[in-house]
């Protein structure tokens, strides 16, 4: 007992494990996240993708994820690997960096909410989507999110300060007792609730549309010609009638499958987001109850929990590209065509060079 009482927090394995997570896993996330998000941006900005509001939101999300990695995770890596804390240079730097960390994390979250709402309107209200789901409205939504998050997190310039001995910490009871609950609702539970409600409506609409397609088969199992309103500007559709047209059943199925693929992609991103961000939100609430009076061993264990929670949070901002690849055939197609195009361009250059050499040989 006497021997254990002389040990400091840094002597425990849990603390050393947390330091190793910051030192060695953080740069891995930064490197992978940088290349993955840049590749996402390149693919999403291709001509066949960039006209969609969904892809516009996902492009903004990729920029947001990069901002998260280079404001939050980079600082943690520098602090643990090189003993350089970006918040320790000045009081204003302390306030600004804390604000940027919260802002970028919240920004990525609410962009994800915006794209989910956009898809919900497109699928469930196809006639109104032509008016609401436009690039102009998408840009207004992004700007509005920025202003609202600045207002939400602006208090950090007054509730956080640099203490020469303690570092950059909260200086008011509000940020220690009230703010974690607000952050839990604004960063985790609230956004996820909106996402799930939207996804439920989307899935319900897809199921109904699929049943409608199947119901338009004749008794012999042959497909009748009918188009589903997903979406259309026809007056008949607006009046609630579904006219028989020359569209084919297979065409409707492909259209519905395309919507389903985007839905699966967004649902996967939403669930991964909630799974990765909930632990840190809970930790920030419980921190003030767990730390005071804790033994060195317990504080070492809490340090490990803090490192793992952060790692999960930043993983969410790293792996969106891989989720797009796994769940979106269109994204995979554009990704492959990107490299195929470059490969074809190289082959063309080699072929052109060969033809030129051949012509030169002929001349001589």
From TrEMBL:
Membrane-spanning residues: 24-45, 57-78, 98-117, 138-158, 178-202, 262-285, 305-326
Entry's Gene Ontology cellular component terms: membrane
Keyword Transmembrane attributed: yes
Residue ranges occupied by any G-protein coupled receptors family 1 profile domain in the UniProt entry: 36-324
GO-annotated molecular function: G protein-coupled receptor activity
PROSITE patterns: G_PROTEIN_RECEP_F1_1, G_PROTEIN_RECEP_F1_2
InterPro entries assigned: GPCR-Ligand_Int, GPCR_Rhodpsn, GPCR_Rhodpsn_7TM
Subcellular location: Membrane
Keyword annotations from UniProtKB, A to Z: G-protein coupled receptor, Membrane, Receptor, Transducer, Transmembrane, Transmembrane helix
Organism name: Mytilus edulis
Name of the protein described by the UniProt record: G-protein coupled receptors family 1 profile domain-containing protein
PANTHER family: CNMAMIDE RECEPTOR-RELATED, FMRFAMIDE RECEPTOR-RELATED
Similarity field: Belongs to the G-protein coupled receptor 1 family.
Source taxonomy: Eukaryota, Metazoa, Spiralia, Lophotrochozoa, Mollusca
């Amino acid at each position: 007992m006497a021997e254990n009482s002389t040990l400091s927090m840094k002597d425990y394995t849990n603390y050393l494990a947390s330091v190793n997570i910051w030192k060695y896993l953080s740069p891995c996330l930064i490197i992978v996240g940088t290349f993955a998000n840049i590749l996402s941006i390149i693919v999403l900005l291709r001509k066949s993708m960039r006209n969609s509001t969904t892809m516009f939101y996902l492009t903004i999300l990729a920029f947001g994820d990069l901002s998260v990695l280079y404001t939050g995770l980079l600082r943690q890596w520098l602090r643990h690997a090189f003993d350089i804390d970006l918040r320790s240079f000045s009081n204003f730097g302390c306030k600004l960096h804390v604000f940027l960390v919260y802002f970028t994390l919240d920004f990525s979250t609410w962009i994800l909410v915006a794209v989910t709402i956009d898809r919900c309107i497109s699928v469930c209200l196809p006639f109104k989507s032509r008016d609401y789901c436009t690039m102009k409205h998408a840009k207004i939504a992004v700007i509005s999110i920025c202003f609202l998050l600045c207002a939400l997190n602006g208090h950090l310039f007054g509730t956080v300060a640099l203490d020469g001995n303690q570092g950059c910490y909260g200086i008011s009871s509000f940020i220690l007792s009230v703010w974690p609950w607000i952050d839990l609702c604004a960063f985790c539970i609230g956004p996820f609730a909106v996402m799930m409600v939207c996804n439920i409506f989307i899935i319900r609409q897809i199921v109904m549309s699929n049943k409608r397609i199947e119901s338009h088969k004749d008794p012999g199992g042959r497909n009748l010609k009918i188009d589903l309103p997903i979406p259309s500007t026809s007056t008949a559709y607006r009046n609630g009638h579904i006219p028989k047209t020359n569209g084919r059943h297979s065409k409707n199925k492909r259209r519905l499958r395309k919507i389903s693929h985007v839905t699966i992609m967004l649902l996967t991103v939403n669930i991964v987001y909630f799974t990765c961000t909930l632990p840190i939100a809970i930790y920030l609430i419980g921190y003030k109850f767990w730390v005071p009076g804790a033994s060195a061993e317990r504080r070492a264990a809490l340090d490990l929990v803090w490192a793992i929670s952060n790692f999960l949070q930043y993983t969410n901002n790293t792996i969106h590209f891989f989720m797009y690849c796994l769940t979106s055939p269109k994204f995979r197609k554009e990704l492959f065509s990107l490299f195929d195009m470059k490969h074809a361009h190289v082959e063309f250059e080699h072929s052109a060079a060969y033809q030129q050499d051949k012509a030169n040989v002929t001349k001589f």
